[in-house]
Amino acid sequence: MIKYCLKCRNCLLEFESWFSSSNEFDRLKKINHLNCQNCNSTKIEKSLMSPNLTKSRNKSHQKNEQKLKEIKNQLKNYQKFVKKNFDFVGDNFAYEARSIHYNKKNSKKGIYGKATSQEVKELKNEGIETELVPWINDKEN
């Protein structure tokens, strides 16, 4: 895709448009399929346009990096809360969740641990409330 700054020779309006290639622009101009949005004239020409790809990519990349960092920090704070207020049951999450649900096992704290997506699906089908939480390893930045 290529973006051109176009100019109407009739009313001097400048506007931008995207084309699949420079050849596509030439083809559309030749068959009079390019027209001015203002006066409907087909006297349209390309004008000079300075590319701004590197700056916008850098800014966009920096914004994305900053947003990712913010999300990771939020997840880490959430993980700290979970670790402080819930009991870790490791790979026995499905077993422990069923034990609490069916045996009415008294637990002052909730639990967290590891479970496969199939185990979580089965727990939900049994009416056992579970949530999937994205987890960031402590070693990750």
SSE-based structural type: alpha+beta
Residues in helix, %: 40-55%
Strand order of the largest sheet: 2-1-3
Beta-strand portion reads 15-25%
Number of strands: 5
| Total of domains | 2
Rounded Rg: 29 Å
Count of helical regions: 4
Mean pLDDT: 85
How far apart, in Å, are the first and last alpha carbons? 36 Å
Biggest beta sheet summary: 3 strands, antiparallel
* Topology as a string of helices (H) and strands (E): EEHEHEHEH
Low-pLDDT residue intervals, each spanning 5 or more residues: none
Shape: elongated
Report on the structure:
The chain is of the alpha+beta class. The protein has 2 domains: 2-47; 67-125, no CATH class. Helix content is 44%, strand content 16%. It is built from 4 helices and 5 strands; from the N terminus they run ββαβαβαβα. 6% of the residues are buried. The model has no long low-confidence stretch (mean pLDDT 85).
